[in-house]
Amino acid sequence: MAASKAKKGKAKKNTTSRKSRLWVRDLLNLLGGLAVGAVGFWLVQAYLEGRTTGDASQRYRTAIQGDLPILKQASEEYEGLVESKQEALEVLRGVDLTGTLYGLDAYRMVHEDLPALDVEAQPLLLAFYLNLRDAELLRKLIVEQREHPEEMSQILSRQFLRTLHEGNQLVPRLLWALGKNDEEA
């Protein structure tokens, strides 16, 4: 009995090494979990970035294609104006300019979406948006001219048609650059 009591009171030699191995194993599990979590987070961020790029380019492609008939018509009127040397007021006489001609609201978030777009599409989209914005300002001035004809000149109508013509010239390159984003996403 004394021999068994002596065994119970003594500590085992392997106990400390087992505890240290458990501590190392827990630390390695914790570090491995953090590494897997970081890689997972990085993959999710990359996926969301790609999805945002595709969404933005698709949204702008749809808006541009919706406005394309109006832009083409204005561009053709401008080219006819240049070739025939007509008066710009005569060309715009039958056009109702009291309401907006194109969906400028679709481009309101363009500055926030620029970083998500392709490098080639960024300056084209920005130039296209600025062109439409200028055309909208000129349209408002033309409406004012119609209400107060003695105060405004004919140059304003010519400038409006030229601005829309320049915007229309950007459309093929812009749609191509935005289409590249859809293929990559």
Question: Would you mind describing this structure in some detail?
Answer:
- This protein is an all-alpha fold and about 180 residues long.
- Helix content is about 80%, strand content about 0%.
- The protein has six helices and no strands.
- It has helices at about 1-10, 15-85, 90, 110-115, 120-145, 155-185.
- Helix 2 packs antiparallel against helix 6 (about 155-185) and helix 5 (about 120-145) packs antiparallel against helix 6 (about 155-185).
- The longest helix is centred in the first third of the chain and has 70 residues, at about 15-85.
Q: Roughly how many Å apart are the termini?
A: 78 Å
Mean pLDDT over the residues: 75
Please state the structural category: mainly alpha
Number of alpha- plus pi-helical segments: 6
The biggest beta sheet, please?
none
Low-confidence stretches: none
Note the beta-strand portion: under 5%
Choose one word for the global shape. Answer: elongated
Helix content range of the residues, please? over 70%
Number of strands: 0
Helix and strand string, N-terminal first?
A: HHHHHH
Q: Radius of gyration over alpha carbons?
A: 34 Å
List its traits:
185 residues, mainly alpha, elongated, 6 helices
Record the SSE blueprint.
Layout: H1 2-9, H2 15-84, H3 88-92, H4 110-113, H5 121-147, H6 155-184
Outline of the structure:
By secondary structure, the protein is mainly alpha-helical.
